[in-house]
Specification:
Distance between the termini: 45 Å
Shape: globular
Number of helices: 12
Oligomer: single chain
Structural class: alpha/beta
Mean pLDDT: 90
Low-confidence stretches: none
Strand content: 5-15%
Strand order of the largest sheet: 7-6-5-4-3-2-1-8-9-10
Number of strands: 10
Largest sheet: 10 strands, mixed
């Protein structure tokens, strides 16, 4: 069965700022020096349910986290959802490790539904969760390979066929207009040879989109910019004939240190680790910022803390962006900085 494709979110990534006007006004007030902290809750948070994983990706950037073996307590998740639901903050369930391996994964989905939390899921797809798919606004399965052989090379185990079967189950179980289904694909120099054939297969299954991005922090297998541009040309040509859409991240390969801008958009999101740490960003490799821990304080207490205010003031200095790499918040910083400097804003 070939599904209608309802998914067009990639066209509106930065335009989502218009749907969060009060949040943007609050951020810009900090930029203008009129207040010291954007106290409004993030638009969305990335929630790491567990650091346990059942794969062995050679290029995994979370290997250190996986050594912790941490799993977030169900009570803490419930209390967190209560606060985020009241503030209409979206939650991306991810890792860390593999979120569906959390022993109370289905209970977490039900808890989020009860408390009116919009939830998305990034999963490796090895666990069949088609029975609870209606609680998710979107799902992205990290496939990262086009064949069984590539999967074993990239992921370290033999699960390609299982993941493809689970994609079929999820596609059949969902209401396409309610739950968008996508595939994530970390590009290396080893997994591009059969990519177009895979996209055709995903199109037949009913997958809405494939999101491709170059591998991070693995220089020996990172595709060149020339190769990425050629791949984009091929994808554009190929997907003219398919219902499936594609995204290919290239810009953050060539922009680092937050484009030399103040990081005023950092409060759009936050990361909550499986050990309870509330982190500012996962990309600050040289200057990690942990705002607090949910085992000691509530999310609201952490978000409104004097330390968060101190950090926000620090990040107004463009020199404090050293260590930031491949950050999607950079694009939002660029848009907000441009808006702030529009000379003819009273004219359309």
């Amino acid at each position: 069965m070939r599904y209608k494709n309802y998914w067009s979110e990639f066209e509106y990534d930065k335009l989502k700022l218009l749907l969060n006007k009060e949040k943007i006004d609050s951020i810009l007030e900090v930029r203008r020096g009129n207040k010291r902290l954007d106290e409004m809750f993030p638009v969305s948070v990335e929630l790491h349910l567990t650091d346990i994983c059942n794969l062995k990706c050679e290029w995994c950037t979370d290997k250190e986290l996986r050594q912790n073996g941490a799993t977030l307590d169900m009570q803490i998740v419930g209390e967190l959802f209560s606060q985020l639901g009241r503030c209409q903050t979206g939650v991306t369930l991810e890792g860390g490790g593999e979120p569906t391996l959390h022993p109370h994964f289905r209970e977490i989905i039900q808890s989020g539904k009860r408390q009116h939390v919009d939830m998305g899921l990034i999963s490796n797809g090895t666990v069949d969760i088609s029975d609870c798919i209606d609680g998710l606004k979107w799902i992205r399965v990290s496939l990262d390979s086009s064949t069984r052989e590539e999967y074993q090379k990239e992921k370290g185990v033999d699960c390609f066929d299982r993941v493809m079967d689970n994609l079929v189950r999820m596609s059949e179980a969902r209401a396409p207009q309610n739950t968008y289904l996508g595939v994530g694909y970390v590009l290396t120099t080893r997994n591009q040879g059969n990519l177009l054939e895979l996209i055709g297969r995903l199109d037949e299954i009913g997958v809405d989109y494939i999101y491709l991005r170059p591998v991070e922090e693995a220089g020996s297998i990172t595709p060149s910019l020339k190769d990425l541009l050629e791949l984009r040309r091929q994808l554009a040509e190929y997907t003219e004939k398919t219902r499936i859409k594609y995204m290919l991240t290239i810009s953050d390969r060539v922009i680092d240190k937050n484009a030399g801008l103040p990081c005023i958009a950092h409060t759009l999101t936050s990361i909550i680790h499986a050990n309870g740490d509330v982190a500012l960003c996962e990309k600050r490799r040289l200057d990690s910022i942990v705002l607090g821990n949910l085992h000691q304080s509530t999310f609201e207490e952490i978000w409104l803390s004097p330390y968060h205010e101190e950090v926000s003031q620090k990040l107004l200095d463009e020199k404090c962006q050293n260590g930031c790499s491949a950050c999607r918040v950079t694009g939002f910083n660029m848009v907000l900085e441009q808006l702030e400097n529009v000379h003819s804003k009273r004219f359309i």
